[in-house]
Design goal:
- This protein has 286 residues and is mainly beta.
- The chain contains four helices and 21 strands.
- The chain has helices at residues 139-145, 193-198, 201-204, 274-277; strands at residues 11-13, 25-29, 34-38, 47-50, 62-64, 67-71, 75-81, 86-94, 101-113, 119-129, 148-155, 168-171, 177-182, 185-190, 210-211, 216-219, 222-224, 230-235, 240-245, 248-253, 262-265.
- The strands form four sheets. The protein has a six-stranded antiparallel beta barrel. Strands 2-3-4-5 form a four-stranded antiparallel β-sheet, with no helix packed on it.
- It is globular.
């Protein structure tokens, strides 16, 4: 798929109660009421299950994290939707033709084709009466409440890793930077999430990165200098990214006015005295 032929309609949740494949990792969400399952090398959960009421007959059924998106001339394709990465809440709106105020919450997430060839920034909106809204927005609820998702931006350069490590992905705490690593190739996409929520894509993207016919933009990544195989990534803020590689710990500073230098960090394995590890057990047992 090219940028000139991206998804044009919407993403819809399409639950299918099945589980086929190896589970590599798990993550509790919704304060322990749901559980996400991850396949090896896949940064987005493949299945999920509800844990809120174990007494229900279907409480432990495993659901496929799958949505569909329509492509012009291609029919429907399946996508996996990540947990939301950013939200915007607008309270007490007065809609046309209504006298009752309402609240609108917009969520951004990442949608990846099940074939793992393409990735997009996707959005869903939830509207509810102000009287029933507590105005306390939880990112995790966006995946549960979002029934219809729209593609906003194509992540140019996204590639699913073909090695045993797959694709390693990390989101910055504020949801404004996305980092992925495929073996030793590290890419970073930057987004202005607040502007994406507003939906004026024609003013957000440069002209050469905006498809007016499809109303979708293209986000270009920055490639970071790397010399080692990346096993994990971690953002400590919106500018500093750490990676654990086969050559040690690496840090990048990708903030404004930074030099873009890579810093290698190492740990002194002899920092601990021998007797701190091999302590005598006399009197410790029995």
């Amino acid at each position: 798929m090219t940028y000139d032929d991206p998804p044009c309609i919407s993403l819809y949740r399409a639950p299918r109660p099945q589980h086929e494949g190896l589970i590599f990792d798990m993550e509790f969400i919704f304060q322990g009421r749901s559980l996400n399952f991850y396949q090896p090398g896949n940064p987005i959960h493949s299945w999920y299950t509800s844990m809120c009421n174990p007494s229900l007959p279907n409480a432990t059924s495993i659901q496929l994290n799958q949505a569909t998106i329509h492509l012009d001339g291609r029919g429907w394709e399946y996508y996996a939707i990540s947990m939301p990465i950013h939200h915007a809440h607008e309270a007490n709106r007065i809609l046309t033709g209504s006298h009752q105020p309402s609240c609108r919450t917009s969520y951004l997430a990442i949608g990846v084709t099940t074939e793992k060839h393409n990735a997009f920034i996707v959005q869903t909106e939830v509207e509810r009466p102000s009287a029933s809204c507590d105005h306390a927005v939880d990112l995790e609820h966006g995946r549960r409440l979002g029934f219809q998702w729209n593609a906003l931006a194509y992540l140019a350069g996204w590639r699913q890793g073909q090695s045993s490590l797959g694709t390693v992905m990390a989101m910055s705490p504020g949801g404004r930077r996305i980092a992925t690593a495929n073996w030793s190739n590290v890419l970073v996409w930057s987004i202005e999430a607040d502007l994406l929520h507003q939906g004026a894509l024609e003013t957000y993207f440069p002209k050469h990165d905006y498809n007016a016919e499809k109303n979708i933009g293209r986000l270009r990544p920055v490639k970071l200098p790397s010399e080692g195989v990346v096993h994990s990534l971690l953002w400590v803020n919106e500018a500093k990214l750490y990676a654990m590689t086969d050559r040690g710990l690496v840090k990048w500073n990708v903030g404004h006015m930074c030099s873009g230098d890579r810093e290698h960090l190492s740990m002194d394995y002899d920092a601990w005295p021998v007797d701190a590890v091999a302590m005598p057990l006399n009197g410790m047992l029995g």
